[in-house]
Amino acid sequence: MRRTRTRLLGRPVAAAAAAVTLLGLLTAPSPTAAAAPDAAAGNTATVYYSTTTKNWARHHLHYAPDGGAWTTVPGIEMEAACTGWVKKTVDLGTADGLQATFTDGSGTWDNNSGRNYALGTGNITVKDGVVAHSDPCAAPDGDGNTATVYYSTRTLGWTTANIHYRPAGGAWTTVPGIGLRPVCTGWWKQDLNLGSATSLTAAFNNGNGVWDNNGGADYTIPAGVSAVADSTVTADAEDPCAEQAPDTQAPTAPTGVTARADGVSVVLTWEPSSDDTGVTGYQVTRTGGTKGDVVSDVGSTVFSDTGLEENTAYTYTVRAVDAAGNLSPASPSATATTGTEPSTPASGTPLGTDPRKDPIYFVLTARFHDGDPANNRGGSQHEKSGNAANDDPMFRGDFKGLVQKLDYIKALGFSAVWITPVVLNRSDYDYHGYHGWDFYKVDPRLESAGASYQDLIDAAHAKGMKIYQDVVYNHSSRWGAKGLFTPTVYGLRDAQWSWYYDERQPGFEYDGLTVEPKSGKSYYNGDLWSTAEPSGNTCVNWGVPTGGRSPEGYTLYNCQWPSPTSGMFPKALYHQCWIGNWEGEDSRSCWLHEDLADFNTENAQVQNYVIGAYNKYIDMGVDGFRVDTAVHIPRTTWNRRFLPAVQERVAQRHGAEAARNFFVFGEVAAFVNDKWNRGSVNHSAQFYTWKERKEYSADDERAALEMYEYEQQQGTGNQPTSTNAFLDGNSYHAPDHSRASGMHVIDMRMHMNFGDASNAFHNGKDSDDSYNDATYNVVYVDSHDYGPNKSSERYTGGTDAWAENMSLMWTFRGIPTLYYGSEIEFQKGKKIDCGPSCPLATTGRAYYGDHLAGEVKASGFSQVESASGTVATTLQQPLVKHVQRLNQIRRAVPALQSGQYSTAGISGDMAFKRRYTAGATDSFALVTVSGAAAFTGIPNGTYRDAITGDTRTITNGTLSVAAPGKGNLRVYVLDGPGKIGTDGPYLK
């Protein structure tokens, strides 16, 4: 930003099909391990339910086989299984799963926060809201050698653990293996029978597809007592729990519980509890309504309770839970009364597929296409900026216009649309969306009747296209954040200032769109200022003249304008300093600009506010978040709070598969051309793709400082490395995401070097071992902020250079992204952003809709069924034809979407090989961009060029390619389909 529920069966996870998982931890088991048979037990399910934190006298399973009828309330009583568990085996007939809830039989329910539990077949566990797969009471039978295995999950956050193993020379257990028993905080145990073997091979998992297989090598564990922790096996180990006294101390009761109703939903927030060994979750109990009490398990300090009864009072209490299952006393209760059900409830569902398959088209919604002139607004800078003279209000494009032109984007071949922030903004020039004021409200200047944000999401999904929402966790507008804190400033409505300070109108609420009748303004500010000093004011020298003058010569007063150093903002919620060093610690703890009030993101109240807000948009079905100013929030806070909250919410609302593929990519702005940002690891993009590697203070603010200092001392030479983006010879290997944070990033180094494609390629390649998985990097040439080498202008390197850049982006690792209009070199050479000092029409953020006038219909991705008017001319431009075919080719060759790559044995400047292997898919491609290349040591076979259709039969492991010309490509695919698409101005 510029500074102005899918069912999970107990199936083996093939190494070749490893993917990012729910917790961002997945490492698939080894190929041998993955060959174990399916554990599903046909048409029966044995459901294990954890009793540790419920304190119920009896437990009932109330269920319905898929497609069948529910049992009679309260269901069937469950029987004791082993310590901490009850169970029940049910006959499902021909169904392959069931819906389930649990109850004590006396009116208290665990119904998965109103969504019920979607369970499969075989052995299934339900513990603290988490569904997993194994028998938690299983123990091996037989005589012979034994191995006692202790396994640590202290750094993993698993709520259950299994060991999948085979004795040396023997057979693997059925996936997911057998359950480990919790024995003390952070440790699990199981005694295994090895028969005559003296060792075993093992991998561990959480029962939901999240694996620790020692980076693909599996663990070799000897007979006797062993401990496995942090990828290290310790043989002849002491009992790690021997000196650890049983944890009997309960956490403190949650405090600060607040409940806020919104229609038939309630958002509940509270302050974190403390515990001697650490809080692992919370238990929320709801009373009220006609459906009985409901207990919900929550992993964060925010809970959104939806689908409630209208006009009904609900009361909530919260209890904290630690790893030993100790429950805190209940919090003081909080009550909220629901209103009426909205007429158009949010109902979206994310597409939930691998984000690497989807090239991204990035739009500034307010500048793309105007579908509804009634919501256009110019704001206070309409005249001064020169926009009025051009009849070009800053808020011009909208969701209706974007819905109308989704077919244009699809015709280009893009299947994901990144849109600028949608929350209600409030500043003098806020069309871009980065000055959020009410994070819980969609900006009405973007919506229209029949074209709400939900309508946009649903319309995109209907076309097979994803919506990535730009989000801001770091800051609010200068006027604060509604519902968290909004400052009051000094204002005197005298002869000098009455033009600026609007008369206060009780009952009028700013929404950016509605015109306040008396002032005639949609940007009304009468609620923001006061001449009288407000009670509890902390702003220094309230209303005292500063001695300075405005440009008009008017008297300036203290507390007239929001500022971090005036005392106007509470320290607990907002930072109180200006940035001095962009590569220093203060870059996370100070204001970036006067329009960006910097949240204290280490404060639980702030965390609750933004988590609760973005839960709303997750519920609407967005497919991912582009995270603005991610570098200005400590990695510890992302890893502890915000990223787990996103994953938890997506999984809770849309299922584990959707959570695995919910795409979070952050802006970690580093405007340098080296691998690490001026030597500061904390300010480098790749740093944010990793989990923490040591434990820090439980206090988030202290932990941020501890992490910053520790990692700076480690320096660039002692950071983790990864081979996830690289082939092993010619072979694809299962990526190791066990230390992945769950955040991916914009590839700032390639972006900075795209003045020349070769520079971008070699710089990107040089950095790839420092990302957890560079195949997820978002790659673009220019954006709404900068062009290559921190240019303030839209890319102006020429059409041939644009074509070459695109050819590289669409075939090299990463996800290609195009800023709106670049397909016709829109506004090339124009200054991208000059704020209100010049008309938007003269900048890189100009209105694009004039080029989209007319009608367009896409019959598929990269396919135009019909087009008329100006948009038909737009679609004939050379770079449009180029990107259409690039998208066709990339979509047809899996190696170009998700493949690892290598340049070993290859001569040529921008030449590489890529491979992706998963299940029945094995895609291998040889690529050269612009120049000649020779590939040696490649598999023999038949290769077909996707550009020309040329066919080569290779018998000696060598293939040579002549230079295709600047911007052109050769993509030889092993056993490929041949020519894809038709020749164009560059691909021929």
Molecular structure report:
Strand 51 (about 940-945) and strand 52 (about 950-955) form a beta hairpin. Mean pLDDT is about 90; it is low at about 1-40. It is built from 16 helices and 54 strands. Helix 7 (about 605-620) packs parallel to helix 8 (about 635-655) and helix 13 (about 800-810) packs parallel to helix 15 (about 880-890). The protein is α+β, with helices and mostly antiparallel strands. Strands 2, 3, 6, 7, 8, 23, 24, 26 and 27 form a 9-stranded mixed β-sheet that branches. Strands 41-40-39-32-29-28-43-42 form an 8-stranded parallel β-sheet. A 6-stranded antiparallel β-sheet has the order 46-48-49-54-51-52. The longest helix is centred in the middle third of the chain and has 20 residues, at about 635-655.
